Amino acid sequence: MPSRTLPTGLRVVVDPSHSAKVAAVQVWVQVGSADERPEEAGLAHVHEHMLFKGTARRKVGEIAGDVEAAGGDINAYTSFDQTVYHVTLASREVDVALDILSDAVLHSAFDPEELERELEVVLEELRRGKDSPGRMVSEVLFRTAFEKHTYGRPIIGYVDTVERFSREDILAFYRRHYRPENMLLVVAGDVDPEAIFAKAEELFLRPEGSPQGAGERPLRELEAPQEGLRYAEERMDIGETHLSVAWPGAALSDADTPALDVLSVLLGTGESSRLYRRVRRDLELVTDAYAYAYTPKDPGLIGIGAQIQGRSLQAALSALLQETLRLRYEAPDEDEIQKAKTIVLSEAVYSMQTVQGRARRIGYFELVAGGMDFEAKYRAAVEAVTAEELRRVAQKWLDPHRLTVATVRPDKDEEKVDLEAVQSWVDEVVSSLEEQHRTPAVEALDLGVVRAQLSNGATVYVQPDAGEVVSIYAVGKGGLLDESAPRAGVSHLVGELLVRGTAKYSAEQISDACDAMAGGVGGQSGRNSLGLRGEFLRASWPQGFEYFASCLLEPRFDDTEVERERRTALEDIASRADAPATVAFDAFAAGLYGEHPYGRSVLGTEESLRSLDREAVLDAYRSQLRPDALTLAVVGGVDVGETLALLERRIGAARPHADARAFTLPSDPEPVSAPREARAHRDKAQTQLVLGYPGLTLDDPRRFALEMFTQVLGGQSGRLFLELRDRQSLAYSVGCFSLEGLAPGYVALHIGTHPDKLEVAEAGMLTQLDRMKTDLVDAKELARAKRYVMGSYEIGLQRASSRASSMVLNATYGIGYDSYARHAEQVGAVTAEEVRDIARELIRPERVVRSIVGPGAEELDAAS
User: Fold this and answer.
1) CB atoms < 10 A from the CB of 563, how many?
2) Residue 291: helix, strand or coil by DSSP?
3) What is the pTM of this model?
4) Mean pLDDT over each residue of the chain, to the nearest integer
5) Strand order in the sheet with 288-294
6) Mean pLDDT across the stretch 367-371?
7) What is the model's pLDDT at position 859?
C-alpha cells in the first residue's frame, strides 16, 4: 500500500481501489479526549466542531457548503485516542476534499463570536446526552471503572469546563496538537497515489510560525489493579433500567486481545449469542443483551450489558453473570468458536465494501495499532484461538471480584440497590457456579440486471458483480397500508416472526446457522410493504438461501413465539415514550393522517397488539407475502443461471394460500383544511418541535423538486442549519425532510431546542419557509444541493444490500427497478422555479400540522 512521509512530518497512506468512482479522504489527528488536562475536559471535541467554522480562506458554512457542492459528505468524530475528520465524495472531486481538510486542520480561524455560538451548540449536545439513558449508563460506567485514567471522563466534557473555554484555550490546544507531525492523511478509492502525494505536499504545509514536533501531551495515569466490586447508579424519568457491567480489560497491543474479541462475540453478538439466547429469549429477563471487548490504546474494558423493563435488576444481573462467568469453568464447543471467529474476521470483509470503511481501517491500524502489519498478525491470532485459550482468558480477565456495575434506573423504581446488595448477588452467582462445576463437565436489462418471472408469477431481478457479499430481498405490498386500526402492528409482528421458526428449522437453528456463516436473515415491515432480507458471504450463499427461503415460505408462527413478539412490541412501544423526538413525530403523524394507516406507528398500539392472535398474523402473512405477487432482487457475487434455477426450484414452486387476499390501496387520508396541533408534556432538557404539511406520493414527478427543497433547507450547509444552529445557536441538530409513499406522504421540519428558545426557533423556521415560497433559490445554492444529493446517493449505493433494497422496493412500488440509476438525471433537471412552485403548493399555513413535546407542553388532541 503506497505511503510516504512528507517533509513537514505528515504521513500519507493511499489505498487505490477503482471499483467505484468514489474517494474517501480522512485526516487522523493523534489527540483525543484522553490527552486533555482536567480543566480541558471536552476541548478535543470542541475542536472537532470548530474546525468546520471557518478558516482564513473560508467563512462559516463554506466548508460544508464546498463539500456538498462537490457532491460529498463531511463529518468528524472525537474518541479517547484520536480525532478524525473525513470526507467522502466522487473521486473526481478528491482535490476539493484535500484542500478543504488541509485548510480546516491547519488554518482554522477560531472566530470568537463563532466560538461563543458553537459552545452553546455543544452545551445543547451535552443536554441532549443527559436525556439519553444509554449514553448516561456508559458515562456512569466509565467514570466508575476509571478512577485515575482520563478514559473516565466523557469525551464531550462537562458543562462547567465547556462554559469556561476561551479562545486562548482553544488556540493553545490547537497549536500544541494540530501539527503535521501529529497527523495521518489517509486517502482510499479511485485515485492515483502519486497525484495524492503531490497534492498533499502542496497543501499540508506547516503554518507560518508553527512549532515543529508532535507537541507535548500530559502523561496518562494508568489505573491501579482494581480491588473489589464497584457500583454506581443514576436515576432518570424513564421506563427501562439500563445496566452496564465491565471488567478491567486489555489494550489493543495485548497478546490476549484477539481471544477477548472472539470471547465477546461469542457472548453477545447476534441473536444466537449466549447472552441474547439465554437471558433475552429463554428467560425473558431483558429486552436486549450484548457484550464487547473495548481495547483502545491503553487498557480498556470487557463489558456486558442489557436493558430491563418490568423485571428485577437482581434477576437480570445474576442471569447475565451466570452465563458470562460460566466460560471460566466450561470451554465453548468448536462450532460456537468457529461462528464467533467468522463474525470477527468478516468485519474486515464488510468494511472493504466502501472506500470510507477502507480508509477508516487503515487510519485505525496505522495510528492506534502501530502499522498495517498488525492486521495480518491479528487475523492469524484470531484463527488460532482455541477452546482452552478462551477458557484461559476468561479465567484471567473475568474476575468476579473486579467487577464494575453501573445502572441508570427509573425514578419510580423502588427496588433497593447498593454496593452491598450487588455484592451479595455476585457472591450468589459465584457460589452457584462453583457448586455446579466441582467436577469437570431471463431478460437482459440495463445496469447489468436480468429479470425473470418465476413459474408462480413472482418477479426476480438479479445483478451479478465481483463482490464477496450477496444480498437478497423479497417484498410484497402492504405494511401499514394493509392494516385497519384493530389490526395495527400485525405487519410488524409478521416481519419479526418470519425468522422465529419454520417447518424445517427452529429459531435457534436459523440464528446459529446465519451467525456461523457471518450472514443474516431478517424481516422488515414498513409503511408500504412487508418483506424479508438476507445477506451472506459469497461462499455461503447457497446454504444461506436455504434458510432465507424457509423463513419466507414456511414460517410456523407458533403461539409461544407470537406471544413473545407481542410482548416485545409492547415493550418497544413503552420504550418510545422515553424518546421525546419519537413522541413528537408520532403525534405529528396522528395529527396529519387521522384514521389513515399512516397515522399509526408500525408497531401498532397497546390495544391493537393485545387483540392480535395467530390467525391475524397468518392472514397478514398470506396476503402480503403471497408467492405469486412477490418481487425479489439478488445482488452480489452470484452466477445468474444458478441463482435463477435456485429461486425457481424453491420459490417458483410455491402457490398462494386459498385464503390469501389481494392487496388493496386504502383511500387517501382526509385533506388538512385547517391548522392542527398536538402537545405532550415531557420533563426533559429540550423541547421537540415538528412542523409538517401533507406531501407527495412515490410516483409523483415533483418529488425531485421536493428533494431539492428539503436539501436547500435541511442540508449540513442548508438554510436551517446555518441560521438556527450556526448563527443563533438554537440547537445541536435541525432538519427538513420529506417522506413519500404509495399514499401521499409529508414534508416536515424538526428541531430540538431549549424550551426558552422554542418561539424564536419556530419563527426562524417559518421565515425560511416563507423565503422558499417567495424567492427563487440561487443558482449556485441549487447546484450545490444537487451535487450533494447526487453524490450522497451514489455513496449510499456502494453496498450490495443498498442496491438490492432500492431495486426491489422501486420495482414493487411501480417506479422502475432502475430508478436509482435515473436519480441523478432527474435531480439535475430540477429548476429553481419548480422548487419554488412545490414550496407554494405544499407549504400552506392552513395545512400545517404542529407537534410540540417537552417541559410544560399541555396534552392536546392530536387533531385539534
Assistant:
1) 12
2) strand
3) 0.86
4) 93
5) 230-236, 404-410, 241-248, 301-308, 288-294
6) 88
7) 54
